[in-house]
Amino acid sequence: MKYIKLVLSFLLTVGIFFVLNTKLGAVPPIGKFLNPYNGIWQNETDESISGNIFISGLKDEVTVHYDAQLIPHVFAQNESDLYKAQGYLTAKHRLWQLEFQTYAAAGRLSEIVGEGALNYDRTERRRGMGYGADQAIAYMKKHDTETLGFIQDYADGVNAYIEQLAPEDYPVEYKLLDYKPEIWTPKKTALLLMYMTKMLAGGDEDLEKTNALRLFGKDNFDLLFPDFFDITDPVIPKETDWSFIDVPQTALPESKAVLDTIRETIAQPHPDNGSNNWAVSGKKSTTGNPILANDPHLGLNLPAIWFVMQLSTPNHNAFGATIPGALSVISGFNQHIAWGETNATRDVIDWYKIEFNDDRTKYKYNGYWRDVTIRVENIKIKGRETYKDTVLYTHHGPVVYDKNFKSDKELRGYAMKWIGHEGGNNQKTFLELNKAKNYDDYVNALQYWNAPAQNFVFASTEGDIALWIQGKFPNKWEGQGKFLMDGSNPENDWQSYIPQQFNAKVKNPKRGFVSSANQHPVDESYPYYVFNDGYETYRNRVINDYFSSKSKFSVEDFKDLHNNNYNLKASELVPYMLEHMDTSSLTKEEKVIYEEVKAWKFNNDIDEVGPSIWRQWYSKLYNMVWDEFDVEDIALDLPFTYQTIHLLKHNGNHKFMDIVDTDETETAKDLFLLAFKEAAERLLEIKDEAGDYKWVSYKGTYAGHLLQALPAFSRFDIPIGGDRNIVNATSENHGPSWRMIVEMTSPPTAIGIYPGGQSGNPGSKYYDNFIDDWAAGNYHNLIFLQPNTATDAIIGTQTLTPINNE
Q1: Which of 27-31, 346-350, 627-631 has the weakest average pLDDT?
Q2: Can you name the residues that pair with 57 across neighbouring β-strands?
Q3: Assigned domain for 40 exists
Q4: Per-residue pLDDT tens for 169-190?
Q5: Positive or negative, the Cα torsion across 435, 441, 447, 450?
Q6: Second label for 539, Cα 20 to 30 Å away, from 6, 187, 382, 715?
Q7: Among candidates 28, 187, 154, which has minimal Cα distance to 430?
Q8: Mean pLDDT across the chain, nearest whole number?
Q9: 295-349: per-residue pLDDT in tens?
Q10: Cα dist. 226→213, 530, 624, 646 in Å?
């Protein structure tokens, strides 16, 4: 019945008046979609969790136990079979999502949705996503055939599932878009990892900051975009001794920024992609065991980003969240250690101005002309001719912007240097973490990780806690990569990399805890250049203050902190605004709103109105302050929130406070009132439209299907508090995508939850069944099975059997 309701809701969305067997734009041939023999009605809602399945290529039987949450607990006799089984089971439950993500990563969406996706596809091709995946495969072929072999095993497992499917059994999205799954290859796994690299290390503002430097001058730029804020509580504690580092920072050359005007830049990843993680030592734990927590902040999508599994062989036993398309557990634990990640947001993208010769076959470098490399991107478009985009490559990387893309300069281009193009073997880090037994194994696993830069938190049953900021980082000269650079000058190249052993890290700190929340990694004593790439400034202080507030912490304390709704950002500005704002001109209705925000205790709980007032008020204020950045045909990024509030409180008469389009000269005090009145006007409109402006309805958190136009397959009005910059970082469509807490007992005990469900089938009861518990701050016990141990938690067992044993 649930699935029928979903289908009817969908039909209302697309409209049944379309010609039944005609493909119109992105709308499928509805007659085929509704065909009773192979259309949507054939999609099953019950998942198979018992019996034998015969798969070619297995060496031994693989046992798969399912618990009541549809979590598969996989027991294989060797790693090859384990990853073949992981591929098979991931495809079984998440096939469409698994494949769709790699279409998006490769810039192939036009193949399935038509020419409306062409600009997106061109952007991803010019970003070098496919090139980066090719480099990773080439690296593994040369340096690590074992890992590449496991990736092929995973692909074989995915393909074993696809081969068993008849067209009527395809997931509903294939029928909706009228296409079919294709063979999975190791490159698709490489593309998935590139997609994660883009999401977490694909953002930069070098070109936007170049524009700001040219428009506003160096003094103003340094005021608005400082390398360090006045309050810095870094990932690695300030008292860390760096005297062991004996490789110096690259010397500063005689180099100047290139102050070209950049009119348009490619889309950036979501600015709130980040996470929280922390661990306390046994001495700081109520039970004497270390405890670790992780909650990655990503898009709230359905099917959910994560798929939870247990992956076991006689040599290791790991449990946690996996990403469809990648091998092993990404955020989780085994019998000896636990680990998790947050985004380190290091600046690993630089831009270079390129000068071409007359026919664009060469580019200037070090006084000579060097050959460009040409990569022709053939972009297939559903129902149209293939689009060919010629992308030029220099030794820096792809020329993203040239006369054929977002630029009108005939013999000029802008090339991207990105660590994501370097190749490498990121997958091996997780393969090794899944097997790690102690701190040394954890450090050994991290050496393979290039990008995206991550803060890897660690705890062990031996009692150690640690945190490494891991990635392959260029050893930059002071200021390198903040602005556009001259690509013809070799001194602007990345001269070397920071040796991995000198990456910032801490083990068993005196304070008894480690934590990261995307804040600045280090303070100014760290001997390498680290640019302020928009580091977080609020969640991290709430977390660190919490762990400094008492001597012992429990799992319940961890749960409370995951779900903490305290709005530190608002608490640091609202009282100041209330104190300094002239209220004499407020209307009766505005005074009511004023009293509501005055009474607010700065918790973004669902029934509060204070968060809604704050959101409206600060948004209006922020735009008023930075109206100077509203410049047509020039790409600009606005200053960071923390620095904005600092200026409002400490430099309220600065010329940036003046509104450009008025004759008066406004100060911060004037802006407080003007912004409040505009906010009040909008809040009263919302009240008229919706009845109130409580936070739960104002924010309207939802988990949207990946095909954004499918409300029937989405969840709306999820009752959860929080917001960006809050530990519970849940905004409209973004937030904690996986909450995990692990206590390092022997073996570890853990709880977890994520906003979705194990199934990718919108008609399944397992599609979104975790969302309500997630929103309420509840957790599920993660049932960590031990080999050959019986338990009532298992509701079904399936055996994957080698096909030659039939």
Answers
A1: 27-31
A2: none
A3: no
A4: 999 999 999 999 999 999 999 9
A5: positive
A6: 715
A7: 154
A8: 93
A9: 999 999 999 999 999 999 999 999 999 999 999 999 999 999 999 999 998 889 9
A10: 13, 12, 21, 12
Give a yes or no: residue 624 inside a domain.
Answer: yes
Q: How far apart are CA 70 and CA 93, in angstroms?
A: 10
Smallest CA-to-CA distance from 334 within 315, 347, 348, 349 is with: 315
Mean pLDDT across the stretch 617-636? 96
What domain range is 675 assigned to?
569-602+609-693
659 in a structural domain: yes
Residue 284 dihedral angles phi and psi, to the nearest 5°: -105, 10
Greatest pairwise CA separation for the chain in angstroms: 86
pLDDT band of residue 42 (cuts 50, 70, 90) is low
% of the chain surpassing 90 pLDDT:
88
Name the nearest CA neighbour of 295 among 519, 563, 505, 94: 563
Q: What length is written for the chain?
A: 806
The tokens of 734 are what? 């973004």
Per the listing, tokens 């998942």 go with 47
DSSP string of 90-136, one letter each residue? HHHHHHHHHHHHHHHHHT-THHHH-GGGHHHHHHHHHTTHHHHHHHH
CA-wise closest residue to 661 among 628, 632, 705:
628
Distances (CA, A) of 69 to 74, 307, 309, 588, 763: 15, 11, 11, 53, 16
φ/ψ of 591, rounded to 5, equals: -65, -35
Q: How many folded domains does the chain comprise?
A: 1
Contact between 802 and 54 under an 8 Å Cβ cutoff? The reply is yes
Structure tokens at 470: 């891991």
Q: Name the residue type at position 707.
A: L
Task: Let me know if residue 743 belongs to a domain.
Answer: no
